[in-house]
């Protein structure tokens, strides 16, 4: 999927692993390219997708969306587990394009809602979510499933 701005949004593959590793490092997440490639493959084989924004060179951004069934809804529910745009590429519409592509992937999977958890005090991300049609839906709690986690 491409758009009029010359930015291509497409499914992430192993060929993007090195660039995504660099993108993650820009925000303090250390993940070697071979692990990125393994995780991209695992996402591809599950109920979800990873999409990258590409113009020239390494990826400018990435979004990962998953969907699952629940007892309380007739349609699958979708959630964004990662939305990241390179710090020097922000405020250029890339996040909005990635969000639009993630929403389309979720609709294609039959989902009727899209959730995105926002951790901590991130007023820019809160504003982004509100500007893109999300509404506040409470807090999310997390519990480790293994000791020491």
Automatic annotation (TrEMBL):
Domain N-acetyltransferase: 7-149
Keywords, comma-separated and alphabetical: Acyltransferase, Transferase
GO molecular function (one): acyltransferase activity, transferring groups other than amino-acyl groups
Pfam families with a match to the protein in the record: Acetyltransf_1 (PF00583)
Protein name in UniProt: GNAT family N-acetyltransferase
Protein source organism: Lichenicoccus roseus
């Amino acid at each position: 999927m491409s758009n009029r701005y010359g930015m291509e949004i497409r499914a992430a593959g192993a060929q993007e692993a090195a660039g995504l590793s660099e993108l993650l490092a820009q925000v303090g997440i250390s993940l070697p390219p071979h692990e990125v490639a393994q995780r991209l493959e695992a996402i591809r084989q599950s109920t979800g997708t990873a999409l990258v924004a590409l113009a020239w060179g390494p990826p400018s951004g990435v979004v990962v969306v998953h969907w699952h069934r629940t007892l309380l809804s007739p349609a699958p529910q979708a959630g964004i587990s990662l939305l990241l745009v390179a710090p020097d590429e922000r405020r250029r519409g890339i996040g909005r394009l990635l969000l639009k592509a993630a929403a389309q992937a979720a609709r294609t999977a039959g989902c009727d809602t899209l959730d995105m958890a926002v951790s901590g005090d991130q007023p820019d991300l809160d504003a982004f979510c509100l500007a893109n049609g999300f509404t506040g839906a409470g807090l999310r709690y997390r519990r480790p499933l293994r000791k020491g986690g």
